[in-house]
Amino acid sequence: MISVGRITGLLICILAVFAVSVALVGASAAPVISLASSTSSARLVSFTGSGFLPTDTTCSLSSPPSSSLFLSSACVIQVGTGIPNGGFSVGNGLPGNYVVQVTGNDGDFAQAILAVGAPTFSNGQSSSGRWISVQATGLLPTDTTCSITSPSSPNVILPGSAACVIQVGTGDAYGGFIVGNVLPGSYVIQVTGNQGDFAQTILDVN
Q1: CATH number of the CATH domain containing 163
Q2: Does the residue 181 lie in any domain?
Q3: How many other β-carbons are positioned within 10 Å of the β-carbon of residue 74?
Q4: Which value, to the nearest 10 degrees, does the dihedral of the CA atoms of residues 39, 40, 45, 47 take?
């Protein structure tokens, strides 16, 4: 016959084991992801994660609430590891901070913040004083062609003198133009990729 004292002791032991089990389950790491820009272009971003469910077999990317952040994306996860990997190319969106979310097929997810900057533009004046070389970086890696224009005054670029090239996958554009017959002042020069993305700078003509 089991005494009441032994029953109480047994229940306390069972509760203690249960409490330890709950503590161990609660101590498991929450899913996390980290982002890293590609060395070739700031618009190509890779990511890795940890702490996802070992039962996840697939994963996906999203950017709540934005729907235009990703131009293309890929995510893979090896079953049993809880470690997703992948990457994406940034679409033609406005500069700002965006949420990047990786979601496992069992509903677990992790988020990180991606800061998207505007494409940068630089220009340099040659010794002749009339030829201007240009370089733009951070354009879309899917751009295959580019053009140089002046939204403020078409005449600042001598007709037929502008040239622009871009290497696919880099988002870097190079080119130049000859300054046309315009009055001294400040003019907007724009490099535009064929995907509609663009960068601008100010050219001072003396």
Answers
A1: 2.60.40.10
A2: yes
A3: 14
A4: -40
